[in-house]
Amino acid sequence: ANASVQGNPDRGGFATNFGFIMAAVGSAVGLGNIWKFPYITGEYGGGAFVLVYLICIALVGLPLMYAELIIGRRGGSDILGAMRNLAAEGSVLGRILAYLTGGMAVASGFLILSFYSVVAGWALHFLAVSLGAMPDAQLGAEGTFAEVAGSANLSSLWHTIFMALTITVVVGGIHGGIEKLCKILMPILFLMLVALLFYVGYTGGLEQSLTFLFKPDFHKLSAAAVLEALGHAFFTLSLGMGAIVTYGSYLKSERHVIRDGMAIAFLDTLIALMAGAVIFAVVFHAGLEAEGGPGLLFKTLPALFIKMPYGAALSSFFFLLVVFAAWSSAVSLLEVVVAYFVDEWKMKRSIATCLFGGLVWGLGIASACDGNVLDFLDNLTTRYMLPLGGLAIAIFAGWFVSYEDRNSGFAPFGELGKKLQAVWLFTIRFVSPVLIVIVILSKTGALDS
Ligand code: PFF
Ligand code: NA
């Protein structure tokens, strides 16, 4: 293969394909699955929304996942460098697209991590409260959430601890930090969810919960639900900001992407559904409605946990799971930023990580002190930057990368081959961009009138 495309051998990489898949799954599985998916599913009425969400994963999520894997694995560098390496020779437009998309992706990682860490910090607070480690804090009391979210000091404290955890892992590098963490956390997280499913199978509400999730009632489906589902497909799969490109760039071989992409999307979806099944079982068993809104995880659940058998232990177990999920996602957000400064600006990994981790921490303090800042950054990134980044990456992969590599005979889909590649190329050229444009326009309100 072309040496310039292979990149710098000193940048490290994943030791095994299993390690890579666990890291990518670790990036995907996060607050999006355990906090956001259940509450939006509750708000939009269950089964029909889940079905639309699954269709969005298949039509936009999976094709874009392949686009990012291919760009990363083939470009062999950070998001900006990978795209620049692949921009067809002499294509000024391709290079411009690489710089704009790369720049926005790095900014997205920086901004998302700043508030993601604050929310993860709240989960740390609930973990500490459940373990009885917080004086005066009472689990399940009405005020517990307001106590942490409403306190600039407490929120900042937990945010600081969570950022320190994140920085520590990223300093360790791809193999020594991220791969090691995710190889351990992801299987544990999965087993914990299985255990929770058994627990609610025993305490009750599981049947009702599964019916709610899987029996579609199309009367409840609205245009807003469809748009929410599509937007969430990006966020939950870590797409549109180069996280998957960056991880893909650390793979040594030019393995075919077909199985990896499928595994990452499947596991992320499975874990969202399992988390939803557990959470709604608890909610329904208590005789409550599913429309708890964003407070479902931090207000409704803790109050219910404490009334259940082994309530404090259950709550500790659950919030530990949330912290694990958020931690393995946070490292991927920071890695996008760090990889950019290491690859493009030749900074040392440890320096780039501490410097930019520190800056993210500083910005996060604003979200910890003011919920409006948190909401603003959440909306800015999830509604606009990720879909825009996804659109740019889809257009780049569809129109600016040459798939007839004479040197390496590169075949992203392997022997399964040409037909599948043609289907993917058609989707990424036409179907995905059109759907993404519809989401962006509707979210900006352009389609309202
Ligand atoms: N996929 C993560 C979640 O579902 O919580 C969030 C996320 C992580 C988004 C990393 C983007 C990203 F690059
Ligand atoms: Na996710």
TrEMBL record:
The keyword Transmembrane applies. The chain crosses the membrane at residues 14-35, 47-71, 92-116, 157-177, 184-202, 222-250, 262-288, 308-341, 384-402, 422-442. Pfam families: SNF (PF00209). It is found in: Membrane. GO terms for molecular function: symporter activity. One of its GO terms (cellular component) is membrane. The keyword Nucleus does not apply. Keywords: Membrane, Symport, Transmembrane, Transmembrane helix, Transport. It is a multi-pass membrane protein. It comes from the Bacteria. Belongs to the sodium:neurotransmitter symporter (SNF) (TC 2.A.22) family. This is Transporter. It comes from Symmachiella macrocystis.
